[in-house]
Write a structure and sequence with these properties.
mainly beta; 16-stranded parallel β-sheet; 8-stranded parallel β-sheet; 2 helices; 12% helix; 42% strand
Length: 233
């Protein structure tokens, strides 16, 4: 009886440990799950979704769970020039290793490749962005990290393109080691406080390399601004 009780206790401990760590869900053309939205519906907070290389056209992926999204060999998330690609409304989300292309363009809504809304502790790491209206957009969020992303866009006029990394009403944000080219503003702060901008490379943006509006107690250092309309405003 004692041995049975011991086995049961060990089994419970193991299950609790697995639950605490979270499971990994794989997405790819050769697996059971072929769409990222399918994996998100199966995931629980703390889980990791590993996405294999390929092209994924799933409209606007709306994420409301605290999970980690990892791309294997830069899977492409294609907005087909129609949609916002990934909208995050959850704390402690990690998005790493994807290529975001062809977000929708709109004159009223600020469509983005990745938009973070009312969230904290979100990390956007090591991704590539091409031909998007806004690149990475943070709204009313805090304690987030945007690190080592590459953002490239091509537009003839300012009104045809949004900002590369855009923040509105945020605090305690870290913008580090990103490369931004061809957007309206490379990096844009509006009503942003206590945030750090370091080691970024902002080139060939239509208006400013870095633009502050109504933003206080921020620090920028060791950044490079080349061939923008102006460097820092």
């Amino acid at each position: 009886m004692k041995k049975i009780q011991l086995v049961i206790c060990l089994g419970i401990i193991f299950l609790l440990a697995v639950d605490a760590i979270g499971k990994t869900i794989r997405v790819g053309s050769s697996g059971l799950l072929t769409r990222i939205t399918q994996a998100i519906s199966h995931a629980n907070p703390g889980d990791t979704i590993l996405v294999d290389a390929g092209v994924y056209r799933e409209g606007n992926i709306y994420l409301q769970k605290s999970i980690t999204l990892i791309g294997n060999n830069y899977p492409v998330l294609d907005g087909e020039n129609k949609y916002e690609i990934l909208t995050i409304h959850a704390d402690k989300v990690v998005v790493q290793g994807f290529k975001f292309v062809n977000s929708g363009v709109a004159s009223i809504k600020d469509l983005a490749a990745v938009k973070i809304i009312d969230s904290s502790g979100v990390s956007i790491l090591d991704n590539k962005f091409e031909n998007n209206f806004f690149g990475i957009y943070l709204s009313n969020s805090s304690d987030c990290e945007v690190h080592n992303n590459e953002l490239r866009a091509v537009a003839m006029e300012e009104h045809q393109i949004g900002n590369g990394i855009h923040m509105w009403k945020c605090h305690d944000i870290r913008i580090d080691q990103n490369k931004i080219k061809g957007h309206r503003d490379g990096i844009y702060f509006e009503f942003v406080t206590h945030s750090l901008i370091t080691g970024n490379y902002s080139e060939g943006n239509k208006r400013y390399g870095l633009h502050f509006m109504f933003s206080h107690n921020n620090e920028y250092r060791d950044n490079t601004f080349i061939d923008n309309g102006a460097g820092v405003a």
